[in-house]
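Handout, section 4.2: multi-component inputs.
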Amino acid sequence: MHSVAYRLNTLVSFSVLPLALMLAAASFLDGFNSPTVQAHAQIHKIRRFRKQVNGADEVNLSLNISMDMESLFTWNTKQVFVFVTAEYQTPKNSLNQISLWDHIIPDKEHAKFQRVVPNKYPLIDQGSNLRGKNIELVLHWHIMPKSGKMIQDKMSLSTFNLPEAYS
Ligand SMILES: *[C@@H]1O[C@H](CO)[C@@H](O)[C@H](O)[C@H]1NC(C)=O
Ligand SMILES: *[C@@H]1O[C@H](CO)[C@@H](O)[C@H](O)[C@H]1NC(C)=O
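Output:
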């Protein structure tokens, strides 16, 4: 009895150790992969710009997005979560950051694409600050590794001015 339990324990320790070493090596190597992301996004169309009954400005738009995130995929990458935010300043907030669209890239084969997409989430302001507002589009990405820490980064894509009038 005692000897079987002891042997099992030894076996487990032996098989766990190499795995732990491998995973440590995986996240260590990740530190040396300096990825270069290429992405562009522009407003394709302002589909609707209105003031909600509660007074908050709301914009619906479509984006022309292209990105090449292939370099983010190493053998330790599980998936990459990307999202595009609209960022702007108002007298109340130095940074308003509103997610317009998001997407999960499951593997390297799907990491390069160009498409026109409607916003998944409308751009809604806390007040009515959006007429003529200068907006910056920012791409954010979270690299979810098979092991190790999640890595997040972002890049500015473009800026545009919203119309002066509702439509
Ligand atoms: C979207 O942008 C790409 C460049 O990134 C351009 O080649 C393409 O013509 C644009 N598509 C539309 C529908 O504007
Ligand atoms: C804006 O788009 C959202 C979905 O993205 C939709 O639920 C909403 O009804 C749209 N609003 C208008 C005014 O078109």
